[in-house]
Design goal:
With 287 residues, this protein is mainly alpha-helical. The protein contains 13 helices and three strands, in the order H-H-H-H-H-H-H-H-E-E-H-H-H-H-E-H. The protein starts with a helix and ends in a 19-residue tail after the last helix. The relative contact order is 0.17. The N terminus is likely disordered. This is S1/P1 Nuclease.
């Protein structure tokens, strides 16, 4: 079983590492918690009950940041291999992300976020997997669904997902990745629960549209958004940029939460009907 004490001891160092330029941190803490909170509002009672032993007293928003916090852990996996789970690079001209269907059988062979999502799903489906293995998979899955909706986690490898692109935010120096994962969200001056409440939806038509998709689709969406932002090439960020792009961020966070709920319901509630009230992803959804 994952130890809460170990996680808590790593939080302070995890927060420090999250402030560093790295292509593996998306949405910051609040963004990931927003996705988790929206998802928590849309899972079924059956799914909630099935998640109880895996959450071990925590909630979806609480575990949403675990995969970043654990990057300070000394084990080889966290220091050498975990970072590549969080993003995928598109080569010029790629219409969709490349996917190695064999990589998800072993967590050490995962090379990108798409394979990480599939590994996590495979473990959660495996009746023979241990509680510890399923806790690991759930915590990563919650995080990676959030990551897949951050545009610069499907950006360009040459600039490390916008980390190497310098911008100013109301005169303060930052980079494009940090602007999108943290600063534009924090500028709203809302707690994660307030933010989630404001963007959540009960629109069944919209929810059904969100759920008619796969993780590969989510990354293509993110990549296309990133391409449009690269093309605009704005470096002095202020009110007009916020007006234009914060609605995009809100939509991506909303989509991430709804899709996470649909995915969890498809894994844990066999009675849930696909595309009905955010209950389930389509049964034939493919990566």
């Amino acid at each position: 079983m994952l130890q809460k004490t170990k996680t808590m001891l790593l939080i302070s160092t995890g927060i420090l590492s999250m402030s560093m330029s790295s292509p593996s941190h998306a949405w910051g803490q609040n963004g990931h918690r927003i996705v988790g909170e929206v998802a928590a509002n849309h899972i079924t009672d059956t799914t909630r009950q099935a998640l109880t032993p895996l959450l071990d007293g925590e909630s979806l928003p609480q575990i949403a940041t675990w995969a970043d916090e654990m990057r300070s852990a000394p084990e080889t996996f966290w220091q050498k291999k975990s970072s590549r789970w969080h993003y995928i690079n598109f080569d010029e001209g790629d219409a969709k992300p490349k996917y190695d269907k064999h990589a998800h059988h072993n967590k050490d062979s995962v090379t990108d976020i798409l394979e990480g999502i599939e590994y996590s799903i495979t473990v959660l489906k495996n009746d023979n997997a241990s509680i510890a293995e399923k806790q690991f998979a759930l915590r990563f899955l919650v995080h990676l669904v959030g990551d897949s909706h951050q545009p610069f986690h499907a950006g360009r490898g040459e600039d490390r997902g916008g980390n190497n692109i310098s911008v100013t935010f109301f005169g303060q120096n930052t980079n494009l990745h940090s602007l999108w994962d943290t600063k534009l969200i924090e500028n709203e001056n809302l707690s994660y629960s307030e933010f989630a409440q404001f963007i959540d939806t009960k629109n069944e038509e919209l929810i059904a549209d969100y759920l008619s998709s796969s993780p590969s689709d989510w990354l293509i969406e993110s990549h296309n958004i990133a391409k449009s932002i690269y093309k605009e090439n704005e470096t002095n960020i202020s009110y007009s940029y916020i007006y234009k792009n914060v609605p995009v961020i809100k939509t991506r966070l909303q989509q991430g939460g709804i899709r996470l709920a649909g995915l969890l319901n498809s894994l844990f509630d066999k009675s849930a009907k696909p595309l009905v009230k955010a209950l389930k992803m389509p049964t034939d959804s493919k990566l």
